[in-house]
Amino acid sequence: MSSLTWDDLFVDAALLDFNGLLVEWPGKVTGQVRLIGASAFGDLFFERRSGEVVKLDMLDGDVHFVADDFQRFSELMNSREWQQEHLLSEGVALLKDKGVLRGKGQFYGFAPHPIFTGAIDWSKVMPLDAVVWNSICAQSVASAATP
């Protein structure tokens, strides 16, 4: 399995238009926040004014607690188990081994979105522009929630 770099697993906030991405998720993120970055799959990690770190999950559209503060978040980021669960590091390594690489400002996306299939299909992954994948996720989650 390929060795991974931080750039393989995480997209720095400086490479993303956070406000442009949040437009797709009205009401999901409220209050003053600071973007930290995103997983290779587009999950947005941000810090609330209270210091708490949370993520907007692209697979279910929910905001999930990550850590009490940025220092704890940094510690978690260095945990292999946490990387496997929250950054899908094993999937990133699989994609890298297969030569499926993403460029700067891109996320890995799934077609169809896992909310419709109930599972991640690693054979259906492709690099997509961050704004495009984010929009697909928001629309997919909204569509799946509509009876």
Brief summary of the model shown:
It comes from Variovorax boronicumulans. This protein has 147 residues and is an alpha+beta fold.
Number of strands: 7
Q: What is the global morphology?
A: globular
Q: List low-confidence stretches.
A: none
Mean pLDDT: 94
Organism: Variovorax boronicumulans
Protein name: T6SS immunity protein Tdi1 C-terminal domain-containing protein
Describe this structure in words.
With about 150 residues, the chain is an alpha+beta fold. It has one domain (about 5-145). It contains 7 helices and 7 strands, in the order αβαββββαααβαβα. The strands form 2 sheets. Strands 1-2-3-4-5 form a 5-stranded antiparallel beta sheet. Strands 6-7 form a two-stranded antiparallel sheet. It starts with 5 loop residues before the first helix and ends with a helix.
What layout of secondary structure does this protein have?
Layout: H1 6-9, E1 10-12, H2 18-22, E2 33-39, E3 44-48, E4 53-56, E5 63-67, H3 70-77, H4 80-86, H5 89-97, E6 106-110, H6 114-117, E7 125-129, H7 130-145
Antiparallel strand pairs: 1-2, 2-3, 3-4, 4-5, 6-7
Overview features:
7 helices, two-stranded antiparallel sheet, alpha+beta, 147 residues
